[in-house]
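[agent] plan:
  1. take the single chain provided in the ticket
  2. run structure prediction with default settings
  3. attach structure tokens to the ticket
  4. add a short note for the reviewer (M.T.)
[agent] executing step 1
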Amino acid sequence: MTFLRTLTLTASLAGALLAPASGLAQKPYRILTQWTIGGEGGWDYLTSDPKAHRLYVTHGPRVEVLNTDSGKVVGSITGLKGTHGVALDDTGKYGYISDGGGNVVVVFDRASFATVASIPAGTNPDGIVFEPVTKTVWAFNGRSNDVTVIDTAKRRAIVTIALAGKPEFPVADGSGTVFANIESTNEIDRFDATLMTITAEWPLTNCESPSGLAIDRAGRRLFAVCDGGKMAVVDADTGKTLANPAIGDGPDAARYDASRKSAFSSNGGGTLTIIDASKDTYPVLQTLTTRPGARTMTLDSRTGRLYLATAAFGERPAPTAANPRPRPAIVPGSFTILVVGQE
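[agent] step 2 finished; step 3 output follows
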């Protein structure tokens, strides 16, 4: 066997080990580049605006706005107290920030990044989503265990819906239904956006503390990421758990790529799990090593690229009675966006 043939065979075997046969037609994902944003403080959700080539990144008391072609910061929304998520309307004009530290939803102009309204919500609004049929924004309040529904035309809250537990991430199906993970009760709640009521409370199988949630609108599937290294794949019409593929430790975000029929879980332990959602068995296509702390992400549906946020960490403080599980300190100036893709 020639040296060249040996190298070729070795490379082929390595590719086979990377993913099952069903995924060999896809190129493997890798970290393409990283953008250092700097600054101080923690972060939460990221939101992509594919048409405008922008990325919204919640970062402590501000939202950074990046150009996804260059990675450069093109603006920011400031004067906030503790940001969690960003929802975008379907006109391209306005965005909505869940400012958990201020117990408000902040409306901003997407052209100028100027704040145009501040709408009172519940306690610690966290996950947030725009619902296109009713033109409403749904802010899920993590400490008051309820959801504030906002009329975007009048820019005011119109109803508060009580929940059975602590809500996490929501998604909308584009046809008038909203879904949200309820972390403390291990379930997904379904809402009728027109009636503004809960229409189902679905217990999840083999899923503890569901956090991130993604939706396959065409295939009517929900993807909830859970503690214990599991994802719950759920029928969006019946609430039945269909599969529990393995993911990494410490997940906090899920995304679904309709063009590639892939589901993703970003895991705080430092991995990104890619699931083949085209098959009923939902096999793992790849486990990509990222960086510790990279547990939130978003997907650019135009390019298929994913953006994950993380930073460098210092020493973890000693546990105390008041804080038995302290987080390590974030190294100032180290806040970074990882860009993941198949190129």
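[agent] step 4 note for reviewer: The longest strand covers residues 30-36.
[agent] ticket updated
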